Amino acid sequence: MGEVILHRLTGSKKALEACRLAEMLYQRGQRVVVWLSDRGRAAVLDEYLWTFAQNSFVPHAVWDGIGDADDPVVIVTGVLGNPNRAEVLVVGDRLQDTVAAREWPEVHDFVTGAAEDEGKKEAWEAAGFRAREVSGVGPDRPRR
């Protein structure tokens, strides 16, 4: 079963942290799926990935739900899919069906002080994942 790394955030701005995490994983040579619950949030993250840091470049695409994708980072909405054969899943919203993430050996999720983030560790563990918390997002975070 895979491992879930829960990134404990001091604020509630998950989009910036998702961009930083996607960039870090891409720079490590990993293929990534970033899952969001709806297209509006995906559009915001899509734009933010191009602009969140002046010297950053994260090649990515928003998946339309049809076929495969060659981009190393793909934003997926609605039904969880793996169009780019990613080994890492970044969960940008609360994933109701955590069992659907079993395809990925490494899953990253965010935990803030918001009520919607309560019980995430327990939910992942109940789905059979090993879950651990780290503070924030950064290059010093250990790999699996």
Description:
The chain has helices at residues 14-27, 39-51, 120-126; strands at residues 3-8, 32-36, 60-62, 73-77, 88-91, 106-111, 130-135. 24% of the residues lie in helices and 24% in strands. The chain has a 7-stranded parallel sheet with strand order 3-4-2-5-6-1-7, with helices on both faces. With 144 residues, the protein is α/β, with parallel strands linked by helices. Residues 140-144 have low confidence and may be disordered. It has a single domain (3-135), classed as DNA polymerase III subunit chi (Rossmann fold, 3-Layer(aba) Sandwich), CATH 3.40.50. It is built from 3 helices and 7 strands.
Secondary structure layout:
Blueprint: E1 3-8, H1 14-27, E2 32-36, H2 39-51, E3 60-62, E4 73-77, E5 88-91, E6 106-111, H3 120-126, E7 130-135
- From N to C, what is the helix and strand string? EHEHEEEEHE
Low-confidence stretches: 140-144
> How many domain regions?
1
Give the CATH class.
Alpha Beta
Question: Would you tell me the structural class of the helices and strands?
Answer: alpha/beta
Write a brief caption for the model:
By secondary structure, this protein is of the alpha/beta class.
Question: What are the salient characteristics of this protein?
Answer:
single chain; 144 residues; alpha/beta; Rossmann fold; 7-stranded parallel beta sheet
